[in-house]
């Protein structure tokens, strides 16, 4: 409860920050996108992550305003990287979206924010958690169609943790599947997870969407994903989520 009250002031006091984590093409090793991840510099608790407060935000009805803050901050950052001729300039930024945002006029919020910063829709991706998709599927599908038709791409996040049927996946305007970290964690240790990941990659091929493995932490996991012909990887082994300037610094040092 206290967290919910403090959240009201967090926006005013500018306590939120986006961290950025690259996604890398598994063949070329090039960065091909960046995921924005919300952090809160909490006055008592220190730096806390989305996992610690997104559900409290949903309960207290503040998800929409926080979601709008995230979208604004990500587009402002894209504009900044572009204007400074940063290597990060032309890369799509992925924003995590909570389902209540989809109902709360997401297409117009996106349109307004892209317009404000003069950003092309192709620079924005939305990540939507699979486990939240099943409720109100028709509504979600039609809103996502509208967004997709505007040129923004759509990723299904945490794939494998929900209950999406193949017909649901086929109906949704999906561009990317992100395999949940829980399947990557034991890659190479348990045979079944390798089989599951291979099956998801094959399914992505059948749906003609790109497939990303998240939570890649070891060289072994990367090697297995390469042998399974996964398209993209993301995780601590490649790069931690970092503040925008720290990420730009890090990339200067490693390239
Ligand atoms: O980076 P991290 O551990 O904080 O993410 C934890 C969870 O919070 C993940 O499920 C992630 O998708 C979610 N999350 C991170 N940033 C955002 C955000 O800006 N909006 C929403 N809705 N969820 C986010
Ligand atoms: O649900 P979503 O995929 O948006 O959440 C991503 C979360 O995973 C973020 O909290 C991010 O900080 C975290 N993360 C990113 N890379 C790794 C990794 O290699 N290992 C682990 N355990 N978490 C990671
Ligand atoms: Mn995500
Ligand atoms: Na995820």
Automatic annotation (TrEMBL):
It comes from the Bacteria. Residues 1-255 form the EAL domain. The lineage of its organism: Bacteria, Pseudomonadati, Pseudomonadota, Betaproteobacteria, Nitrosomonadales. This is Diguanylate cyclase (GGDEF) domain-containing protein.
């Amino acid at each position: 409860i206290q967290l919910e009250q403090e959240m009201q002031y967090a926006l005013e006091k500018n306590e939120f920050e986006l961290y950025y984590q690259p996604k890398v093409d598994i063949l070329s090793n090039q960065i091909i996108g960046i995921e924005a991840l919300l952090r809160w510099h909490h006055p008592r608790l220190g730096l806390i992550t989305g996992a610690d407060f997104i559900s409290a935000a949903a309960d207290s009805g503040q998800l929409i305003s926080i979601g709008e803050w995230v979208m604004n901050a990500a587009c402002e950052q894209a504009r900044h990287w572009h204007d400074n001729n940063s290597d990060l300039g032309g890369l799509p930024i992925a924003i995590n979206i909570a389902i209540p945002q989809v109902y709360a006029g997401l297409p117009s919020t996106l349109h307004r924010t892209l317009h404000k910063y003069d950003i092309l829709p192709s620079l924005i991706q939305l990540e939507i958690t699979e486990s939240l998709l099943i409720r109100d599927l028709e509504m979600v599908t039609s809103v996502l169609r509208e967004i997709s038709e505007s040129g923004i791409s759509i990723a299904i996040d945490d794939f494998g943790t929900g209950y999406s049927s193949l017909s649901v996946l086929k109906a949704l305007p999906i561009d990317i599947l992100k395999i949940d970290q829980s399947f990557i964690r034991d890659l190479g240790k348990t045979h079944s997870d390798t089989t599951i990941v291979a099956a998801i990659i094959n399914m992505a091929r059948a749906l003609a969407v790109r497939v990303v493995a998240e939570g890649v932490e070891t060289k072994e996991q990367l090697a297995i994903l390469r042998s399974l012909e996964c398209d993209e990887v993301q995780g601590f082994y490649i790069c931690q989520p970092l503040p925008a300037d720290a990420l730009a610094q890090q990339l200067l040092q490693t390239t």
